[in-house]
Design goal:
alpha+beta; 222 residues; disordered N terminus; four-stranded antiparallel β-sheet; 11 strands; 36% helix
């Protein structure tokens, strides 16, 4: 694989982290996209499931096989529900959790490592080469504090302000700015804050969108 790999056990199940030869940990979304590409190639297509917060690179990969992408809520429960749907070959959260439904519909770190080795061998490639061949994408993420009592107001105002640009409301408020730009404003279920995800044509533009919507969320708090 030309990488150093390890499996870390977490409270919510087995998560996989992968480091390159320089010791840098590969970003979770990048690892997920590489494995999705290899899984689609190995199966000749099939549905893949990822949270609504993940970049659009998954649709680009699936389109090559005329396959669907199932977008889920940003939760392990939502991902596991999608993994149980017919035709799903892989479900992943972008944070190191992978579900291989044809084996069992739960997060499995050891199976993930086994699949990496299997795909690399059968496809005569390496994980590094798979990552290098991925379509480029640019995302950013941030948070904004918000009192519990203001969360509902912020959500209502976002829906009103951007009602002409709203995407599929699977979780939080997703705002489609163009074909290649979107923002997801997601209330944290356990803390008084919002998570803000953005994708754009460059890293700088994605970071700018996060900053912009941090200010908007702050302003909507009154």
């Amino acid at each position: 694989l030309h990488t150093t790999m390890g499996v870390r056990l977490d409270v919510g199940g087995e998560r996989v982290w992968v480091a390159d030869c320089g010791g840098d940990v590969i970003k979770g979304a990048t690892l997920a996209a590489a494995l999705a590409m290899m899984a689609l190639r190995a199966n000749g297509g099939g549905a893949i499931a990822v949270p609504v917060s993940m970049p659009s690179v998954f649709e680009k990969l699936a389109a090559e096989y005329d396959s669907p992408v199932i977008r889920t809520r940003v939760s392990m429960r939502g991902l596991m529900e999608a993994a149980n749907k017919p035709g799903v070959i892989l479900a992943m959260d972008g944070n190191g959790s992978f579900i291989w439904p044809q084996f069992q519909p739960v997060v499995d770190g050891m199976m993930t490592v086994a699949k990496m080795l299997e795909y690399a061998t059968m496809q005569h490639t390496s994980l590094a080469q798979a990552i290098a061949s991925l379509p480029r994408y640019h995302v950013a993420q941030g948070t904004m504090n918000c009192p519990w009592e203001s969360k509902g107001t912020v959500m209502r105002l976002l829906n009103q302000q951007y009602k002409g640009r709203l995407g599929a409301q699977i979780d939080g408020v997703r705002i489609n700015l163009s074909d290649d730009e979107w923002v997801l404003v997601l209330p944290d279920p356990d803390q008084p804050l919002f998570h803000i995800f953005a994708e754009a044509a460059s890293d700088e533009q994605a970071e700018g969108l996060v900053s912009r919507y941090q200010r908007i969320v702050e302003g909507f708090q009154g």
